[in-house]
Amino acid sequence: xxxxxxxxxxxxxxxxxxxxxxxxxxxxxxxxxxxxxxxxxxxxxxxxxxxxxxxxxxxxxxxxxxxxxxxxxxxxxxxxxxxxxxxxxxxxxxxxxxxxxxxxxxxxxxxxxxxxxxxxxxxxxxxxxxxxxxxxxxxxxxxxxxxxxxxxxxxxxxxxxxxxxxxxxxxxxxxxxxxxxxxxxxxxxxx
Length: 191
Fold this sequence. Notes:
Blueprint: H1 8-25, E1 30-38, E2 42-51, E3 54-59, E4 62-66, E5 70-75, E6 80-85, E7 105-112, E8 115-122, E9 129-136, E10 143-150, E11 153-164, E12 183-186
Parallel strand pairs: 6-12
Antiparallel strand pairs: 1-2, 1-11, 2-3, 3-4, 4-5, 5-6, 7-8, 8-9, 9-10, 10-11
């Protein structure tokens, strides 16, 4: 994580980043509303809940539940539920492009009237996200936006309604009754 060669700025940036990262993906859980437009190829907004390895996404096209074992994606237009193993990269064509390992980046921080700007720059050889600029508000240090560079493309994810804690594990359980009139397609790979 931290080494003696890091500057005070790098250590502060990494510490602030780790704090918010653990709030989002930690055992207490977090929720936020997001809006993203990936250079016109993919535009969506919705709400995400995270808690440890579990997650739930709701946007205008689908509902997705990850209960820590299986990933369920209910596609409203097709009235179809696809179920994958939690770690299957085929579950989402964009997920594999946004893999993230915190130790694969160099960190720096600056501050202005808008907030704290934490810049993550990929170390040599890292694939996927080449740069991320995270804006945290000054008062609570909650995320406001994330600007990502993947390859030569940039996109900004706007974040609102961020809160941590109070996330029930029941939220991540796929309710089969709610989607009883959907076709179920099991995409889990058999061993």
